[in-house]
Design brief:
This protein has helices spanning about 1-35, 40-60, 65-75, 85-115, 115-120, 130-140, 145-160, 165-170, 170-185, 195-215, 235-265, 270-305, 310-345, 355-365, 370-385, 390-400, 400-415, 415-440, 445-475, 480-505, 510-530. By secondary structure, it is mainly alpha-helical. It folds into two domains: about 1-445, no CATH class; about 465-530, no CATH class. The two termini are about 30 Å apart. The mean pLDDT is about 80.
Length: about 525
């Protein structure tokens, strides 16, 4: 119970911090959209950003290989309550840090030198100006590649010591830096140079914010070149986790490059629209996954070390069940309200109604990935807890061809929606395969999972079908953003309330627990006041 209580407290804290971070990121996207719209400059920046984002988000971010490997190994070596780490643990930290710095420094140099060739390979376009502009952006952002892996190590170490606030608030620095620099530029950034510079400065600030927290834990930076697997078995464990997991993240990025290849064949602004759709998608889903899986991952790792597999099953159903309970109504809300939300958030300045339509179309088909996305990421944490990053890599690698085929099949008939639909289908396939393979290692009893999932889906379908009739009948003038905002909020709240009521009638266990916790909280509050 104490573990569950601390998990929920950590989840609430991370959710709060992540909401702040996502909101600032949303504001950043609104400002970028206002100044650059969905055109060549924004396409060039987002094409170029895919490579440094591999380092700072996929490799160094939440669930990335460096974060996952650090938590998986260090959670078994340290006691979070200790004031100072043992000398061997500090040496392991420095060995990992030194090797990562060398690898990412070399990668940064290679990307800087061959930036134009790299982008010429992944952008399928005859627009030489677009490729040169993207190449210039990429050169400016190459420091982000060096910083990414180090941020991942720091992130994982802080999470292992139950320091959830600092690492989860630090990503906001990239968004804040972009906002500040663009506002000061006053829209006088014709080629997006300030945008690329701001990204690099923000990544550096993200690292600098995390550094004092790691130092406070007692870790001191001292280069260590003991890369011998024979003499340093813990470092070997780290590398064995990081290498296939990093390849897995890279495979995920190959999906992006496949999408870039097909998007560059569509009309101007298509890639920008897909990027905005993904960021809108990640706003609620990223908060959910980060809030529950970040504190849950060290628990999984600890329980695997203690061989308490029944408890892993309990926390899996608890965590994933709660995630699905919130994720399912978000899926239906996106389908119903996507155009209105995009119009309210982005449609101003250079961002017109055509761009709004492109983003909302991409977002609707991407929303179908929510449920398999939650399941896949949860299952992957269990694999990492067993020190197995090879299986997720092989599954991801096997899906690259499928991603290419689906894009090719749908692109002519569906346009921009083909790319996000294929993402949803590939995510579903990966989730299914990982779930089946894991049964050989641990029986998670998926009957419980699907029983709850079907109840939630039934409640959501009924709730949103009933409210969709009202949505159609409620006509609002497109130029009245206040009325549109009121309609969007009212429809979302009504749909969510209907969903919760139906979920209670269907006796979905999470609703009863949630209501009980709220009752207990109110009783404690009023009880304290009466006592005083």
């Amino acid at each position: 119970m104490s573990r569950e209580t601390s998990l929920l407290k950590a989840a609430w804290l991370i959710a709060f911090v992540t909401i702040i971070s996502k909101f600032v990121g949303f504001l950043r996207d609104v400002i970028i959209a206002n100044y650059y719209g969905a055109g060549m400059v924004s396409d060039a920046y987002f094409y170029a950003y895919q490579i440094p984002s591999l380092a700072i988000i996929l490799i160094g971010g939440v669930g990335g290989p460096f974060h996952s490997a650090t938590v998986s190994v260090f959670a078994k070596l340290v006691n979070p309550d200790d004031k100072m780490p043992e000398e061997k643990v500090n040496k392991l930290f420095n060995t990992f840090l030194t090797s990562s710095f060398i690898v990412f420094a070399l990668l940064s140099i290679l990307v800087f030198v061959f930036s134009e060739q790299i982008l010429n390979f992944i952008i399928h376009s005859d627009n030489l100006q677009l490729i040169k502009l993207a190449s210039g952006h990429l050169r400016i952002m190459t420091p982000v590649i060096l910083i990414g892996g180090i941020i991942g190590i720091y992130y994982g170490l802080l999470i292992t010591y139950r320091n959830f606030l600092l690492p989860n608030i630090s990503p906001v620095m990239v968004s804040l830096t972009i906002i500040i620099i663009l506002l000061f530029s006053g829209g006088n950034d014709k080629y997006g140079v300030y945008l690329a510079v701001a990204t690099s400065i923000g990544a550096l600030l993200q690292f600098l914010i995390q550094a004092p927290g790691v130092r406070k834990l007692g870790y001191r930076i001292k280069p260590n070149f003991n890369f011998s697997f024979k003499n340093n078995p813990e470092f070997k464990n780290l590398v064995e986790l990081v290498f296939p997991a990093a390849l897995s993240s890279t495979i995920g990025q190959i999906y992006v490059y496949v999408d870039m290849f097909f998007a560059s064949q569509l009309k101007e602004g298509a890639w920008t629209a897909i990027g905005y759709a993904n960021r809108v998608f990640q706003f609620p889903v990223g908060i959910l996954v980060t809030a529950f899986l970040v504190p849950l991952f060290p628990i999984f790792s600890k329980l695997v070390g203690e061989k308490k597999y029944d408890e892993i099953k309990y926390y899996f159903h608890k965590g994933v069940g709660l995630l699905n309970f919130v994720a399912i109504p978000i899926l239906f809300a996106i389908i119903m309200l996507s155009y209105d939300v995009i119009q309210l958030v982005f449609q101003r300045g250079m961002f017109d109604s055509k761009a709004t339509y492109m983003v909302s179309q991409a977002l609707i088909f991407l929303s179908f990935a929510i449920i398999p996305y939650v399941f896949r990421d949860s299952i992957t944490r269990i694999y990492y807890s067993f020190n197995d990053s090879r299986t997720p890599f092989l599954v991801a690698f096997s899906s690259v061809v499928l991603k290419f085929i689906l894009n090719a099949l749908f692109i002519k008939s569906m346009g921009i929606a083909a790319i996000t639909l294929s993402t949803s289908l590939v995510t579903l396939m990966n989730a299914f395969i990982l779930g089946v393979i894991l049964l050989k290692r641990i029986n998670l009893d998926y009957k419980i999972y699907f029983k709850n999932l079907l109840k939630m889906l039934a409640a959501a379908i009924l709730a949103f079908s009933a409210n969709y009739v009202l949505y159609i009948l409620w006509n609002v003038a497109q130029d009245s953003w206040i009325l549109l905002l009121i309609k969007t909020i009212v429809m979302f709240v009504l749909s969510m309330l209907t969903y919760v009521v139906l979920s209670a009638l269907f006796k979905i266990e999470f609703v009863g627990e949630l209501i009980e916790r709220i009752k207990n909280y109110i009783k404690q509050k009023f009880g304290c006041k009466r006592t005083e």
